[in-house]
Amino acid sequence: MIASKFYRTLFLIGTFSVLAFAKAYSQNTLTLELEGIEKQKGTLYLSLFNSKNGFPDDGKKGVESRKMTVLGSSVTITFENLPDGFYAAAYYQDVNDNGELDKNFFGIPREPVGASNMDSLGQPKFDKCKFEVRGDKVVKIVFMD
Asked: Where does the secretion signal sit in this chain (predicted)?
């Protein structure tokens, strides 16, 4: 009887430990749908960030970055195995394919740039552009030109 109680307690502790571990390390799929690309040429650079460190300009400090040829008016990008958390995406379109974001004399981009949840002009801020990923998620981003 004592052994039975011991094994039952051990089983419950093990079960709750596994559930807590699985929740803490859950892996999610994030799909970003960029829509409204007007200039259907060049290369799109997109970086995903999980903190304000480097956002939006330094893709090397992001969680993951992608580069793809623009062939149509929309692009879908999928990120897999992301832990629960807050993320923000930043992009720019290198229309002339010179490998850099062209800017004018004042440092204002001459090529399309933007970020998730961005609804106005100006430098995007992580706290305004972030969204929560907890389970698989689809985020639509309207391309700003």
From this structure: 1-22
What is the number of H-type helices and E-type strands within the chain?
A: 2, 8
At 103, the amino acid letter reads K
In a domain, 2, yes or no: no
| CATH assignment of the domain containing 49 | 2.60.40
- Cα separation, 69 vs 17, whole angstroms: 45
The pair of structure tokens assigned to 110 is: 């001459």
Q: Give me the amino acid identity at 47.
A: S
- Domain housing 80: 28-142
Prediction pTM value: 0.80
What's the pLDDT tens digit per position in 54-92? Answer: 999 999 999 999 999 999 999 999 999 999 999 999 999
User: How many domains does the chain contain in total?
Assistant: 1
**Nearest-angstrom CA–CA distance, 142 and 102:** 21
